[in-house]
Amino acid sequence: MASIQAIFQYPSSSSITTPFTSLSIFSIPTLPSYISVKPTFTCFSSSSSSLSSSSITDRAEIRLGLPSKGRMASETLELLKDCQLSVRQVNPRQYVAEIPQLSNLEVWFQRPKDIVRKLLSGDLDLGIMGLDTLSEFGQGDEDLILVHDALDYGDCHLSIAIPKYGIFENINSLSELAQMPQWTKEKPLRVATSFNYLGPKFMKEKGFEHVTFSTADGALEAAPAMGIADAIVDLVSSGTTLRENNLKEIEGGIILESQAVLVASKKSLIQREGVLDTTHEILERLEAHLRAAGQFTVTANMRGGSAEEVAERILSQPSLSGLQGPTVSPVFCKRDGKVTSEYYAIVICVPKKALYKSVQQLRATPRWRDILLTLGL
């Protein structure tokens, strides 16, 4: 068969064209129409918060809080745009914007910790922030409902880090740190952190008796070298900053795995008109985009005697089975004045991580497999 070009199209890059035997791959913009996404709400934690309506302000509009600065802000706007929920901000210096696709919704740009506080006070109905911020400033309040716990960006973890040198050189686990004889009532383990709720809570749960915390913002990594702390509790993504400052994480020292989450006020969901429906629509759009973002449609032509034969050949390869199986349809051509069908077009959906393997298997035609078999390869 003559060589036909295949197009590899990725969500945010230009197309790459390469010689191939009738194979094309396209990113999926949305989920198929037959997939229905229902809202699932999870209570973040439990405490003694009440559901009185007195804390909810008397306003008609629904308010969504978004991060105002930094990488979290830009990635949040990009995610919403991918979900066809573009935020329209007339003036970049204004703190209020709108999403035209969602009526009666106001977007308020705030610091992540202020989003949590204003959800609790009733000034916001929905918000996006990191799970670490929610956990630190929400402190388990039952009015905070975790609507979506994995928005697939802002990945990091909250962790304890200690120096690589001195008395900590051979300390590699949290239990070893706790058992060090240096820590006494008179001379406790000194921890610098900006997480003044999660840090002490974690250390108490892990049985540390002699430990004190100092509030610090900014470059915590310098605290041990300056002699003002023995350890730090801070967010870690790649770990490069820790290594460059001669600090190390230890086994059992991860306090919380974090990424961006969507949160709602339970009072708002129950008592405010339109909030539940708006939350449902946002959730469905997020679910559709996040599920589709990791899937690719692969189309190829394959010779076969029947659609069933081709389908059986495809289904024999686990990585080619797709979400629910392949779509197989005949490819008609005219030969000697007659319409015949010697090839079949197959369409499958495969995860991004299995894309290359799927392409390899599709390229392995029966004749090529026979040659490899003959060679014992």
Automatic annotation (TrEMBL):
Name the enzyme's class.
Answer: transferase
| Domain Histidine biosynthesis HisG C-terminal residues, every copy | 292-364
Reaction(s) the record says it catalyses: 1-(5-phospho-beta-D-ribosyl)-ATP + diphosphate = 5-phospho-alpha-D-ribose 1-diphosphate + ATP
Entry EC number(s): 2.4.2.17
The cross-references to Pfam families, in alphabetical order and at most eight, read: HisG, HisG_C
- What are the record keywords, sorted? Amino-acid biosynthesis, Chloroplast, Glycosyltransferase, Histidine biosynthesis, Plastid, Transferase, Transit peptide
Cofactor names from the entry are: Mg(2+)
Task: State the family it belongs to.
Answer: Belongs to the ATP phosphoribosyltransferase family. Long subfamily.
Q: What is this protein called?
A: ATP phosphoribosyltransferase
The species this protein belongs to is Aquilegia coerulea
